Amino acid sequence: MSAIDSLPPLAEVIRRHALTARKSLGQNFLLDLNLTAKIARQAGDLTACDVLEVGPGPGGLTRALLAEGARRVLAVEKDPRAMAPLAEIAAHYPGRLEVLNADALEIDPTAHLSAPIRVVANLPYNVGTELLTRWLSPPDWPPFWESLTLMFQREVAARITARPGSKAYGRLSILAQWRADARVVMELPPQAFSPPPKVHSAVVHLTALAAPRYPADPRALQSLTARAFQQRRKMLRASLKGLAPDLEDRLAAAGIKPTQRPEEIHLEQWCSLARSLAGGPQNPPGAPMQPHGPAS
Ligand code: SAM
Above 50 in pLDDT, residue 292? Predict the structure, then answer.
């Protein structure tokens, strides 16, 4: 019997189902159910929520989500070998766990879940950033999820939560912080996993804002920051050259010096510049911008 339910310990489950970890699937399992319970708790009270879990593997986090009281869990797992252990968990929690043997990049989870929805996952590192980018870039905002509680490689977690002026600050920081509050809530050493990965890991908790923090067209903001950070060592007057004949005036109106580099520019300034370059009204120098949430 385990620490959180009457199912067998995970090491035994893995042995019985010959679920040896595969590197190609990013399989580094969490076997300590006290630890998975701690991760599940970072997502808050789940009793009135449906939860999407990507990559349940042998089910350590799945069991924690259910034991913590999640209303329903949809677990999407690519590895067919995990179906038998997950079926045992589903039988232990009748009607509360649905398992899909599928690639998370290819399914629409909303067809299986009811709002409010939270996402909690120990993500496979090879698809984690891709999934996060998709979840942060839906056609309409607010998105289908109200929060994301996700394990990443520590360096990726740092990029998601980085502030201007830091080396990790870049496109992912802007994308995440434009429409969500993002913070690192746990750090885990390699030894927490079986087998231990080469890198440290961290859990990031993101809460969707009701509206983007500052107005901007998502595509304009995305292409502007892509262009600027592609040459992150260059001054903006060089990297953004050709975007507008009066580029330096537009930079000034957004409160940006042409000699600044992208890692120095705050979110509200990116949004102001994106609006200006997309043809929206410029902010006269000195005019306050209109945030929808606390400035980052
Ligand atoms: N949640 C488990 C845990 O915490 O022990 C396993 C986490 S392991 C880091 C990542 C899991 O994602 C593996 O079970 C792997 O098979 C699964 N996976 C990898 N690529 C996937 C994909 N594209 N769609 C769904 N699951 C995937």
Answer: no
- H/E element, 118: strand 117-122
Could you say which DSSP state residue 258 is in?
A: T
**Ligand 1 lining (C-beta closer than 6 Å):** 25-30, 54-57, 60-61, 76-79, 82, 103-105, 122, 124, 127
Query: Taking a C-beta distance cutoff of 8 angstroms, is the pair 152, 128 a contact?
Result: yes
Q: Is the peptide bond before 189 cis (omega within 30 degrees of 0)?
A: no
- Ligand 1: which residue has its CA nearest to atom 6? 57
Name the pairing type of β-strands 201-208 and 147-153: antiparallel
Which residues make Cβ contacts (< 8 Å) with residue 270, sequence separation at least 6? Answer: 174, 216, 221, 224, 225
CA of 119 to the centre of ligand 1 (A): 14
For residue 1, how far is its CA from the centre of ligand 1 (angstroms)? 24
Q: Where are the domains of the chain?
A: 10-208, 218-277
How would residue 3 be classed by pLDDT, with cut points 50, 70 and 90? confident
Could you tell me the distance, in angstroms and rounded to a whole number, from the CA of residue 95 to the centre of ligand 1? 22
Q: Which CATH number fits domain 10-208: 1.20.140.20, 3.40.50.150, 1.10.486.10, 3.90.1300.10?
A: 3.40.50.150
Has residue 31 got a pLDDT over 80? yes
Query: 121 CA to middle of ligand 1, Å?
Result: 9
Q: What percent of the chain has a predicted confidence (pLDDT) above 70? A: 94
Residue 220: alpha-carbon gap to chain centroid:
21
